[in-house]
Design brief:
This is histidine kinase. By secondary structure, the chain is an alpha+beta fold. The protein has helices at residues 2-24, 35-58, 68-78, 80-85, 104-120, 153-158, 174-184, and strands at 64-67, 88-93, 99-102, 126-135, 139-146, 188-193, 199-206.
């Protein structure tokens, strides 16, 4: 179904772009000043559609045993410069080696998306906390907490739905793909508003 949605977006996007290009050569129309922006936004959305299709094609890959601790540390390290620039302190309460059922490349993309959202929620600085919990030998739970403004109950429920977003210019695909990847490997992704402030992203894995 998700692949069909992505493919179905391509035709209307192509039509919108063609109409905008046609309007560009008709300078008498009052909307001409906005045409370049329309084309740019269509191209941006097309890029997201291509990313979505790439994710979905990747899901055909076989599950493998992945070291969750190692790949989480690697993902956090990739944001080191951005974390310093945004004055965000990082606390990692993870250690040892925890093997989970996932896919190395896709799990890296999941973590990058969740971490990017957490960092965006703290433009004035704050704290990013990561912790890992085990539920016997069958499950592992990675918690990613930020100290941003938090989220509404509606966002808790809808954040992982396709094309749901509260960001200006956002397309609502990033967290949707996070959910798709987690569920594909038997896991789950959830968001929770924290009191007095902040958001918790929970990633549950099979071991």
């Amino acid at each position: 179904m998700s692949t069909a949605v992505a493919h179905s977006l391509r035709n209307p996007l192509a039509s919108i772009r063609s109409s905008a290009e046609l309007a560009q050569v008709m300078p008498s129309q009052p909307a001409v000043g906005n045409i370049a922006d329309i084309i740019a936004q269509v191209d941006r959305m097309s890029g997201w559609v291509n990313d979505l299709l790439q994710y979905l094609r990747s899901l055909r890959g076989e599950a493998e045993s992945v070291d969750l601790v190692a790949i989480t540390r690697e993902a956090v390290s990739s944001f080191e410069a951005q974390l310093q620039q945004s004055r965000i302190r990082t606390t990692l309460a993870i250690s040892g080696k925890v093997e989970v059922i996932s896919h190395t490349l896709l799990l890296g993309q999941v973590l990058n998306s969740v971490l990017a959202n957490a960092i965006e929620a703290m433009p004035e600085g704050g704290e990013l906390r990561l912790s890992l919990k085990r539920s016997g030998t069958a499950e592992a739970l990675l918690l990613i907490d930020d100290t941003g403004p938090g989220i509404s109950r509606q966002q808790e429920i809808s954040a992982f739905k396709s094309f749901y977003t509260t960001k200006q210019g956002g397309l609502g695909i990033g967290l949707f793909m996070v959910s798709q990847v987690m569920e594909h490997f038997g896991g789950e992704a959830t968001l929770l508003n924290l009191e007095p402030q902040g958001t918790r992203a929970s990633l549950r894995f099979r071991c």
